[in-house]
From TrEMBL:
GO terms for molecular function: heme binding. InterPro entries: Catalase_sf. This is Catalase. It comes from Tistrella mobilis.
Length: 321
């Protein structure tokens, strides 16, 4: 299993990505402050409760899921890249649990377990090398637009179509056209994490009986949903089935069943603009039993930390929220 080294072992790739992100994605706001590199657009930041019900299979009852528990949860919904939510884009859900007991990854906030997810089952890149190809292609194009994401170098580097990237773009458009509200989407880990000595992926799945709310912004639709009552998600884990399910192939979907291990409930509450502006989430705020695995997660360790540090999130104590 990969170690929890404080620096990404893919140093050259990580350093180049940090440079690209500084130059192209993390540009100053009008007031001079720096935004998140990605998922800057906030739809809502809400309080919830994450209730663990340990699975019967002892191989799955690891780490956070080994015993019953109720944890305060901060939940942020966001747009992936584009500043206008009326355009097709990935939608993110980040959960920060507090009061969690157990050994954490090196550099993680004690008592904290984050789950960072998007509404697509796979990321836009296969591995670290593929990530570098993608971000080199769009480096220097400073205005985030759909056209920017469809530049020839991103879609067909060296004349080879990136079919998985095109599929992700098609999935994004499909989700947009379906008009699902934030509470009716399934959110995925996209990368693997430890499950004790094994590995897992995870997802947050909306209630099967959820009735979609239409009309208005995502925030307005959440307000309408809260007028009906609490919003709930099931949290499920998907254990790795064997060595054939690779840790370093981001676009290969695993085939095993998902098992529900927890419930996330968001009680009716105000939806306040920019409440989560100064928060910071990272996959590396994790119990050691759920440490991030694979190349893409090791790159995320560097890039998430750099983004938070540059915008001062850690200095303001936001990583503690």
């Amino acid at each position: 299993m990969p170690s929890d080294a404080p620096r990404c072992p893919l140093d050259a790739t990580g350093d180049e990505l940090v440079t690209i992100f500084r130059r192209t994605f993390q540009l100053p706001r009008p007031d001079g402050s720096l935004p998140r590199t990605f998922h800057e657009l906030e739809h809502a930041c809400l309080d919830g409760v994450f209730t663990v019900t340990p699975p019967a299979d002892p191989a799955l009852a690891q780490g956070l899921f080994a015993r019953p528990g109720r944890y305060p949860a901060l939940v942020r919904f966001s747009g992936g890249l584009l500043p206008d939510e009326r355009l097709p884009d990935a939608r993110g859900m980040a959960i920060a649990l507090s009061d969690v007991e157990g050994e954490v990854c090196e550099g993680a906030v004690p008592g904290r377990q984050d789950f960072v997810m998007v509404d697509q089952p796979t990321p836009p890149m296969r591995d670290a090398a593929d990530a570098l190809v993608l971000f080199r292609a769009i480096d220097g194009h400073l205005k985030p637009t759909l056209a920017r994401m469809l530049l020839p170098g991103a879609v067909m580097p060296r004349g080879r179509p990136r079919l998985h990237y095109l599929q992700m773009m098609a999935d994004t458009l499909r989700n947009h056209l379906k008009g699902r509200d934030l509470a009716g989407r399934t959110y995925h880990s996209v990368a693997p994490f430890a499950l004790g000595q094994g590995a897992m992926k995870f997802q947050c799945r909306p209630d099967a009986a959820w009735r979609n709310v239409r009309g208005g912004s995502f925030a307005e639709r959440l307000r309408k949903a809260f007028a009906r009552g609490p919003i709930g998600f099931d949290f499920l884990i998907q254990p790795r089935q064997g060595e054939h399910e690779l840790l370093d192939d981001g676009i290969a979907r695993w085939t095993g069943p998902f098992t529900a291990v927890a419930r996330l409930e968001l009680p009716p509450q105000p939806v306040v603009a920019d409440r989560g502006r100064d928060t910071a989430f990272t996959p590396w705020n994790a119990l050691a039993a759920h440490r991030p695995l694979g190349e893409l997660n090791r790159l995320r360790r560097v890039t998430y930390a750099e983004s938070a540090a540059r915008r001062g999130a850690a200095r303001r104590g936001a990583s503690q929220t």
